[in-house]
Write a structure and sequence with these properties.
Length: 413
């Protein structure tokens, strides 16, 4: 049954939050005429220890930066092949450190296939990972870093505004990966502090069986953001709340800045959408056909988790491209600094970037990486060209978020 109620997000929600001041968070928490049936941002924490089956070998006696000999000869040789730009000393010191701790975002497969590939390449390093939703991850990392008790070597998120703020605060390590040029669009990296391993692109999604052949054809022809208010889908549409995180805040910000507040009012009057607290709950309803149309919705994991399971969903991006970067940073006090550097450099390598795409489902940030996601070959699936992406001012988005949230409530509440 279609309706206007707010749905609670599940523990597997893949929405990402921005890091904000306390007063901003309080402002965001004021829902107007909405009944929240669960936590707005569900935090899923899963700590997985993926390590070597035996104790790593002792440090090598030969510490020359170029020699591929000693107990770490295999790792040094592998790094030379995969990351030729990386100094061999970093590899050896990483193996000496033996461990690496990641605060990751919540991904399908818990990143296990990707971690296994890194582990196969560098078996001297044991990886421990903790998966958190974006807002919870940012809050935990900042709290620990300020107290000097940070438990992570690498912090992963999708809010450049938060990363920029933490860099200015001195919470992140300044380092330029030797292969950072592999990240092509400038908005998807800060060469010294954060480096994108892929993106989630925003677009429109629909259930082709629920909309019918004529509407399926009509939705397939949409190319720009001012065409989202499609007649004939009133009460059959769904949207995620602006509070869900970067994957909703970016498109709502763009719509209001580019077309004015009236563009969101038009969406409400034309579609009368059900507002969901998170993307996971929305995608589940879209997959079942309870919701027929979902504008301003991220692709990638939504499609991966529903289309690959047999749901008749369709998705396409629009022009200009709107994308949220999923990036890595290194903590200023990282206890395993060289292991963190090795993991970042590997993530930006050909093998690493390919794994973030095919194993995790992120859109590549380098045109040299082939999109191996199974649905990428479908005629209905369309990603924007790297040259067409909108370049957002993430600091302004963060600063404008209280007003954007207020506008959202006044329109969709």
């Amino acid at each position: 049954m279609y309706g206007r109620s707010v749905e609670a997000s599940s523990a597997s929600d893949l929405t990402i939050g921005f890091s904000m001041k306390k007063g901003q968070m309080q402002e965001m928490s004021r829902f107007r005429s909405m009944k929240v049936t669960g936590a707005i941002m569900a935090v899923a924490v899963a700590t997985v220890l993926a390590g070597c089956s035996s104790q790593p070998a002792p440090a090598p006696t030969d510490t020359g930066s170029g020699a591929a000999s000693g107990p770490y000869a295999s790792e040094v040789a592998t790094a030379k092949k995969l990351i030729p730009e990386l100094d061999a000393d970093i590899v050896k010191k990483a193996c000496d450190e033996k461990q690496l701790t990641l605060y990751t975002l919540i991904f399908r497969n818990d990143l296990n296939p990707l971690v296994q590939k890194f582990q196969d390449a560098f078996p001297c390093i044991t990886i421990q990972k903790t998966a958190l939703s974006g807002g919870a991850s940012a809050e935990r990392f900042a709290t620990e870093a300020r107290a000097g008790t940070v438990g992570a070597d690498i912090w992963m998120n999708s809010s450049p505004a938060a990363a920029d703020s933490y860099a200015k605060e001195g919470l992140l390590t300044s380092w330029t990966p030797p292969n950072v040029k592999r990240i092509i669009p400038a908005q998807f990296k800060d060469s010294k502090y954060w480096w994108s391993v892929g993106t989630v692109t925003i677009g429109i999604a629909w259930n082709k069986d629920a909309v019918g052949p004529a509407m399926d054809k009509k939705l397939s022809s949409i190319t720009t953001w001012d065409q989202l208010a499609v007649a004939g889908l009133k009460g059959k549409s769904g949207m995620a709340n602006v509070r869900a995180g970067g994957t909703t805040q970016l498109p709502y910000f763009y719509m209001e800045q580019r077309y004015g507040k009236s563009s969101l009012e038009k969406l409400d009057s034309t579609l009368q959408p059900t507002i969901f607290s998170g993307v996971a709950a929305l995608s589940a309803q879209l997959a079942s056909g309870a919701i027929a149309y979902a504008p301003l919705t991220g692709g990638g994991t939504l499609i991966a988790d529903t289309w690959t399971a047999g749901a008749p969903v369709r998705w396409r991006s629009l022009e200009p491209g709107l994308a949220v970067p999923f990036f890595e940073t290194i903590a200023k006090t990282a206890p395993h600094l060289n292991a963190a550097k090795l993991f970042v450099a590997w993530s930006l390598s050909q093998q690493g970037q390919q794994s973030w795409n095919s194993d995790v489902g992120l859109t590549p940030v380098n045109p040299a990486i082939k999109d191996l996601r199974t649905y990428a070959k479908e005629s209905w699936f369309k990603e924007p060209s790297l040259k067409s992406y909108f370049v957002p001012d993430w600091t302004k988005i963060n600063d404008d978020l209280p007003q954007l949230t207020s506008d959202f409530d006044s329109i969709f509440g």
